[in-house]
Write a structure and sequence with these properties.
Length: 209
């Protein structure tokens, strides 16, 4: 009986591993040629979408993912590759507001505040990219995040009718936890598309101009 249970558990684990591997490879291959690390290789778009992350690390100090996304967005804007920056992230409570923190950091780097648009309902990547199309009216966009995240974001965007390229912010050395989480995040993204999952909130259209 114990051997039978162990066999069943082993088969289930192998199946789940195969699903995670397949979905990750599928998303990686889909995004091939759509994420760019060299600014001269990326096409211009009206809007760059910065995907939100916490400003500070849990252990203290500035989050390098946040810092590097700001650097990438500024580089795109000052190179004339984007005209507006849409910052999208979680607005969980008064002391945690990703879009607000992103906006302040961008203004400090010389981006005019009238060129920054806030999306307070980008609770996850799927919400951010779909809202960029359905709420903020974009048909084509440049996504700004780290490469591992950009692959998933491009996949979610294009599968929901938003033409997307992505600019890769510098990627800090990922921890085991971040790497593992991204494997499962890609699997979830694959199934979100399969089952046509939609954002938690949409709302009235916002014109970017």
């Amino acid at each position: 009986m114990i051997k039978k249970i162990a066999l069943i558990v082993g088969v289930i684990i192998l199946f789940l591993f195969a699903v995670v591997l397949y979905t990750n490879i599928a998303i990686h291959n889909f995004a091939r040629g759509k994420t760019f690390s060299q600014i001269e290789h990326i096409k211009p778009n009206k809007v760059g979408l910065v995907l939100g992350t916490a400003k500070y690390k849990v252990t203290g100090g500035l989050n390098p993912y946040f810092k590097n996304r700001i650097e990438a967005a500024v580089k795109l804007y000052k190179s004339g590759k984007i005209d507006f920056i849409l910052v999208s992230g979680d607005n969980a409570h008064i002391n945690y507001n990703e879009p607000r923190d992103l906006k302040k950091a961008l203004i400090k780097r010389g981006i005019p505040k009238e060129k920054i648009v806030l999306d307070y309902a980008g609770f996850r990547t799927l919400d951010s990219v779909i809202r960029a199309k359905k709420v903020f009216g974009q048909d084509s966009i440049t996504i700004i995040s780290q490469k591992f995240h950009n692959e998933r974001a491009v996949y979610l965007a294009e599968k929901n009718g938003l033409q997307a390229v992505a600019f890769n912010a510098k990627d800090p050395k990922a921890s085991y936890k971040v790497t593992l989480r991204e494997y499962f995040a890609k699997t979830k993204a694959y199934f979100d598309v399969l089952f046509n999952v939609q954002p938690k909130f949409l709302g009235k259209p916002v014109d970017i101009q």
